[in-house]
Amino acid sequence: MAFDSSMASPNLLKISEQLRLYEPPPAPPQDDHQSDSIEEEAVEESAIRIRPKRAAVLVCLFEGDQGEVRVILTKRSSTLSTHSGEVSFPGGKVEEGDADDIDTALREAKEEIGLDPSLVNVVTIFEPFVTKLGITVVPVVGILSDKSALDPVLNAGEVEAIFDAPLEMFLKVLLSILSTLSFIEKRLLLDTHFGRDENRKGEEREWMGDKYLLHHFYYAADNKNYKIWALTAGILIRTASIAYQRPPAFLERRPNFWNGVAKNDTSKM
Q: By three-state DSSP, how is residue 249 classified?
């Protein structure tokens, strides 16, 4: 996963180096009783879910006009059967023929937004996030050194819109990110969320006795308002924390099941 630094700015080089040096923590131990319970449930649900599914997403970073690091995001098509109209990363399920998670993420980005894999320098792969449905999602982090080379071609069946947001906003409160936004972006954000003291809210939830926060971030781009939340927000918080080497300025309290405790559940992860 060598990083081509020939076209990268010093700021982007620093961020990419922090990400490249990242080492995922070891997987938490699983007690025998929990393991037996999960195995029994897997057998009972075998008619519905034969084996755990795996997916990979591309967290693609580039440098904006003001020198800030930004991340490419998409809004899923409203015609999709799952998570329609929600903000996500380019990515999808592993398919036969994919060599690895990197291959999956880059292939899906090519199919969804027309991003040429040769433009992306992959710098790291994060530890998997596991959803309540038992889907393992692997974030693949890549650097787009030349944003101008990206000429998006959206797959209308999967993607309704593409936009980008400052990575650091996923660590900060509203007032501290306004300086990174254009006048129109500031106006839209303030008009939509006037009265909030931040661009984020944390929604408390509980699952199997585990109380956690589901984070919602609000962002305006191209005269449209977007809500970035749940697993996508969690991956962005992790990416920003590692890239900038500091924790978020708010209580994160992520769900334990993202670390591998999964159960068949139809609610939003």
A: coil
H or E element at residue 206: strand 200-207
| Per-run averaged pLDDT (10 residues), the chain, 269 residues | 60 92 72 46 41 87 94 93 88 96 98 97 96 93 94 96 96 61 61 55 92 94 94 97 94 92 44
pTM: 0.80
Joined tokens for residue 68: 């800030």
CA-to-CA distance for 41 and 54, rounded, in angstroms?
A: 19
Written in H, E and C, the secondary structure of 71-93 is EEEEEECCCCCCCCCCEECCEEE
DSSP state letter for 27: P
Task: Tell me if residue 112 falls in helix, strand or coil.
Answer: helix
d(Cα 157, Cα 170) in Å, to the nearest integer? 29
Whose CA is closest to 68, among 147, 162, 151, 183?
Answer: 147
